[in-house]
Predict the structure.
Amino acid sequence: MSRVDTQKFAAGDQRIDRLHAAASACDSATSADRALDAVIALAVFPGLACLARVETGVWQHADGARIRVLRYTSNRSAATTLVPPGHWIEADPAKSDRVWIYGPLPGLSASSSNPCPALALSAAALRAQAQLRMRCLAGFGDPQARDIKTVDRKNNPSAREAP
């Protein structure tokens, strides 16, 4: 593995750690918190750290454009945006404080419990993102890669095509 690849994996591990830390913070939170919204945003969008911070949950580009994070911890619709593509949310009406998120591959599932539905959903979605990122780094390459090789089924019939 080249030096660049090693750095990419190390950066991926830090991102996974940030996702898990944000999920744990959601689990222990008892109410919506704008500072926690900012922590979640930085875990999901690490590039925000390169921008000037204007106030809690608001960053500014050099050109003056501002980015305001969604209210993940107070709004279930905002928390739903954290669910990775291809995953789905399940909830049990009898257990209104619990949420599960399942992925398209075996072993990609996460759950959380919190009296605040948006916090439970945020925590589970962050764990699902961390699991997906770990899976991608371990066996499927960088999840942010745009150039996916096409599988030659004729010469390798057991190979699966990339989604």
